[in-house]
Structures are given as C-alpha cells and as structure tokens.
Amino acid sequence: MYISWKNPKNIIVLYALELIEKDSRRVSGRQGNGTDIFLKECLRSLYWIERNIYTKPRLGWYLPRVYRNNFCAQEYPDVKRKNIVLLLFVIASAVLLVSGLFAPSGYAAFATDSGQPEPSADVVTLGNDLLNLSGPYLGQEVPGMTARLFAPGIVSVSGRYEFALSFAPNGDRLLFTAQTADEKVLVLHSRQIKGQWTQPKPVGLSNGARRDEMEAFFTADGQHVYFAPYDEGMDVRIWRVTPDGDNWHNPVPLVGAIAEQPAFYPVMANDGTLYYTNIKERRPYSARRSKDGNWSVQPVPVEFGGHVYIEPDQSFLLLDARAEDSLGGGDIYVAFPAKDGDWTRPVNLGSGVNSEFGESCPSLSADGKYLFFSRYNEEGGIAQIYWVDAGVITQARKDTQ
Fold this sequence. Notes:
17% of the residues lie in helices and 35% in strands. By secondary structure, it is an alpha+beta fold. It has two domains: 9-99, no CATH class; 127-400, 6 Propeller (Neuraminidase), CATH 2.120.10.30. Strands 3, 4, 6, 7, 8, 9 and 10 form a seven-stranded antiparallel sheet that branches. A five-stranded mixed sheet has the order 15-19-18-17-16, with no helix packed on it. The longest helix is centred in the first third of the chain and has 19 residues, at 34-52.
C-alpha cells in the first residue's frame, strides 16, 4: 500500500511510521516493560491490518521492513521511546488504516519495477475505486489494423506481466491475469458501475483452494468462468466458477479425462465444447461434458500451436506458435475449418499483430471486433496486453482463398 500525499491526515501516519522505524534501529537485548510490549502488539495489529485488508504486495509504502520480516518469527526489536505521543501516533495509524484513508488516488493498482506506483496520465479515481472511464473497452481509443497497447497504466502496467484477457458477453466486465513483483499469479477483475469502470482488483476464483490462478475466460452466455489455478510447479487443472457481481460462487475442478493431465487456457464454444492446451503433450485439446459430469477429451486436429482460443461459433481458431514464418520468438496465428473436419494450416497474422519481440495468449472481445494478445517487449521478457482490429483475421482468411 502507499500513502496518498493529497490527504493531510496521512502525514500523521507517515510521521508515526518514521518514528517507529528510527526506534527499530536502536535494539536492546532486554524484553522491555509493559509499554514496550503494548507498542509491539500495536505494531502486530498494524501489520495484520495491512497484510489482510490491504493485501496486495509491493504497492509502495509499507510498515517498516524490520517488523514485516520478523512478524510471527521472532521478537521485534525493543522500542525505546515510551512517551504518550508515539503511542497516540500508533493508535491513530491503526484507525486511519481501517478507515481507508490510504486508498489509491489517480494511480495504477500495482507498483512498477521501481517500487513506486505508476501514474496513469489520463485516469482519475472518482472514489470507491471507480475510474473516470466510461464506454466500451474501458473507454480506450480503439485501434486500427496495427496493434497498440491496451489501457496503459490500468491493465497494461509497466514492469508487470499481463496476459489472457476476457470480456463478459455484454462487455461490462473484464478479467485478465497478472504476475506481481513477488511472483504471485492473480486474476484481476474490473466492471462497470453506473457506466464507470472500476480499478482492476484481484479476485479469488478458487476461494483460497489454490495459491495462484490464471487464464480466466467467460463463457459466451456469461453464466460461468473457466480458469486454471495451481499451487506448486505446473500442477495445473481446469476449474469452473459462477460470477455474480463482485462475487464468485461454487468453484469446482473439472473431472474425468480432462483432469488426468495438466491443462490450461480453457475457452468454451457456443455448443459447449471446451478448448484448452494439454501441457504435458504440448498441444491443443477439446473436451465435452457428459450427463454424469465427466469430461471426455480429444486432440484438436491442427498442425501446430498452443494457447488456443476458439471463436464461439467455431469459425476460426486463434493460437500462438513459433514456426518457420514467425517474425519473433512466437507469433499469433489463425486456423480455419477444413472440408475434411480438420483445421487448415495456421496462418501468420502478419506485422500488424506480430513483431520481433514475440506474441502469445490470443483472445477476442465479446463482440468479436478486436483481438487481444500479449507482447513480450519489456526488459526481462515481461509481456503486456495489446489489441488490434479483428479485421486482421478477415484479411488472413482472404489471403488463404
């Protein structure tokens, strides 16, 4: 969390935290008297509030690092200053934290790699996490046939890895995946409230059953979201959850053959066929649910590719791959249904989409007008989300005829 300098009341909190940090450097070997112990318990409470109410790591200002690192592991350093002013400062800090006076204002929800929040030049927070943005696609200027960065400072934040974007069918909700500076992988959610978009915030789709969650996609009817949570390594399986406003109900893992091997990037067609990538076999699969709830699977007959995204009516299939005609480390391709029931050889979408940097994780807006994908053009192989007019797909179809 960071402290908004626009609120004078927060100066009190800052001063208290600075005093605490200065005192933490003067460590004595004794246990301390009753005032010392009480101050330590105040600090424990402050840390709990900051960690459990304002939960996102690396957002700028924190409680002094010495307390954060030693919380529930060893005794805090003895706090020598015992006057009543410091005690009141500590209590005031807790009160202000709970009252939400540390809320962000006019900044992106995550810090950049410099550790400080990244300003978004054209974004103003109206309160209650509402952005001064309205209209479709977070109020962004739509792209043409050359890809451009999507929602800079809001969705695409410098220094943060983002991928796998999905809009709800009516376009009023958005999910995408981000990896934070502490390596945690989260699904973020934004939606329109009275026409205004909210600041994207992490959601717990698996309700805490898994540590990390990624690649969440709305179904075409908006009734469910399919996603890929995991704990350690790549023990990834596909789950389903039911969205309801800001709530997510009944998260369940899929069962049957689909659960026998690691899988991710689950996207459902209109007829209920679920397309996904089998991680172990490194190829796309499709799955159908039987009446008993089990999912049967079969390989998708396409020549190459992964991170497959099916257009809802199955008129084309988007995927990423590194092939002989790739422009960079990997490109976005499209395949079309063939007469024999297979898919055509994937076609490279060209320089309007692909670049020397590498692209992956394609998806479409709910209205089919725009193609979204990740481009790995930041230092360290970090990807941000770009978008382009879906006319590039129409053009690719014409080029194959």
